[in-house]
Each structure stands twice: as C-alpha cells, then as structure tokens.
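README, section 4: Worked example with a bound small molecule

Sections 1 through 3 covered apo chains. Here we extend the same pipeline to holo records, where the ligand is supplied as SMILES alongside the sequence. The molecule in this example is fe (ii) ion. Nothing else about the input changes; the structure line simply encodes the ligand pose together with the chain.
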Amino acid sequence: VTDVLMPGEASSRPSPSAPIRPGLPSSLPAPRGPLTEHLLCHFARPPHDLGSLPICDADVLFDDDAGLALHLCYELCYLGLPFVEEHWETEPSLVRERTRLERAFEQRLLDIVGPIPIGLSVADVRDTLIQMASAPNPRSLSVYMEQHGTFEQICEFAIHRSAYQLKEADPHTWAIPRLTGRAKAALVEIQRGEYGDGAVGAVHANLFAEVLAELGLDHRYGAYIDRLPGVTLATENLATLFGLHRRWRGALVGHLALFEMCSVGPMGRYAAALRRLGMGHRATRFYDEHVVADEHHQVVALNEMVVGLLEDEPILGGEVVFGARALDAVERAFADHLLDAWTDGRSSLLLQETGTARR
Ligand SMILES: [Fe+2]
Ligand SMILES: [Fe+2]
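The generated complex, written as structure tokens:
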C-alpha cells in the first residue's frame, strides 16, 4: 500500500487559512469497460439516442465498469459532468438505459438481502433497526483503523469515502418533498445539521474536503473517481438510487436511519485514528462533529422520521427495513474489500494509470 497516493501527490490546497470547498467537477473519468466506453463516447456529443448499452454479464452491484456507468448517469442529476451537455440528464435513451442498470442493481440487492418484508408493525421496524445497529461487527473498519490503520490506509479510506462524503446529505434531501408531517420535519432537522445549519464552513461535505486537504490529498469533487472500485461506487449509487425515485422513499428513510444509528462509534474511532497518527483538529473535525451531531440525529431518525413515516404510510415498513439491510450489505462488502486488500499488503484502490484493479 505504499505506492498509493501519498501526502502532496495531488494536493491543491490554496493556503492554510483559505476555506476548503469541493468545488465543481473538472475532468471526466477514463472509461474502464464496455459500459463506460459507450457512455463516455456518446457524452462527447450533443444529446442524441445513445442506443443500447452493452450487455453486462458481471455483478452490476459491485462491478467496476457498471458502477462507474451508473455513477456517470447519476452525476448528471447532481453537479453535472464537465464537457457533457446538461440536456443529457433527460435524454430519453439515457433515462431508459439508466433504468436498465438500476433494475439489475435492484435485483442484485434483492438477491443479497432477501425480498422486501411485508406485514411489519412500527414496533417490528423499530426493533429491527435497533438490532441491526447494535449487532456485533467482527470486521469493523473503524476498529481496525483505530487500532492498526497506517497513514497510507487512512488516506485510502478517505479517498474511497470522497465518493459519498463530498456530496454528503444530498441524496437524502430528495426525500423531503416526498414526506409529510413528523417524518418531513425530522428529515429537515437532520439535513439542517448535515448542511451546517446554513454556515458554509460547517457543511459536512466541506468539512470532509478539509479532511482530504489536511491529509495532503486532492479535495476537489470527483478528483479520485478513477481510483474508486465498483464496491465503493455501490455505496454511493445505492443512496442515489433510493433518493432519485419516489417509490424508494421508504428505503431511503431506512438507509438514512441506519446510517445515523451506526455513526457515533465509528466516527469517534476514525477521529482517534487520525489523532494517533498525529493529525490535528482540522483533520478530525469532520469526525468529531459527527460524534456530537449523530448522537442527536440517530434519535430523530428513528423516533421521528421512521415512526412518523410509518404513521402516515404504514405499508412502507418493509421498504424501511429493506433500505437499512441494503446499506448494511454494501457497507459490509466495502469494509471486506478494504480489509482483504490490506491483509494481502496491496492497495484497495484501482491503479491510477489503467483504471484496473490491482489484484
Ligand atoms: Fe454528516
Ligand atoms: Fe448525521
């Protein structure tokens, strides 16, 4: 893991006192297989019918090429893609092919976590989430990081997490207009904290950019996309899949609830790992703030957002549990990928030069 990206490799930090922001994406990733080859080739031109994406025989949930393909489709709905016309977002053939990828992604989730449960009471859902959040985790990434993580490994971890944490909270914001009553109020309360109570310097995504900069890494949005394997992109694509579609609002609520309920302990351990490695407050602030904020968010998420949603729409209990199980499944796969790579003494990132996995 020594030849990954070390401090200073891509640092674009303006000055010690200047505020750090992820900014806008500035470059497109390289294609890494038939799906991304096809998409990027068509994205270079004005919107038109892109035809059918090549058939993907791989596991769409974790495949490097399929993961990047879905990520590219989704980025059109966030900050856009550089050099790609904005009208691609609603080009019918793009939406059609994205839907095909999403259906395959959803089917793999169902294969892994089982069907959406039916007939769950509010108490059943609550108990299931509490049990999932408190279950022992024999392969905890945060425990490893606190006890053994090296500087190189914490850099790798931050690079992986940049996929989601530089847009932290955005996928869940899509659910706000789809909820009502207590659930909507609770989600807004959580998101208010995620967006720093309106203070740009406290927006969690910006605090994460600060972590990257302090580690000597490139803090710009999308800077490391070529290094991220499918298993990492799955964690980000999952949140966007649930966020973009109203029919998945229950799953998005379950995803966010478990996310908040599993945050305090791990965030504290990541902060401890950084301190053990000699990093200061600017590097640990993102994690320290979560230890405090998520102590509150987890209560609001469970007792107000989940319970409020099920008061309004009792039929969504199964979706809430499915969303939480899906999060748990992709996070476990992500942790296994990193720990397996480090146990073998190799990087968990893709090779920079080729965009292919180092195996
Ligand atoms: Fe956050
Ligand atoms: Fe939170």
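What to look for in the output: The two ends are 12 Å apart (CA to CA). The pocket of fe (ii) ion (ligand 1) is lined by residues 168, 194, 204, 290 (CB under 6 Å).

Section 5 describes how to batch many such records.
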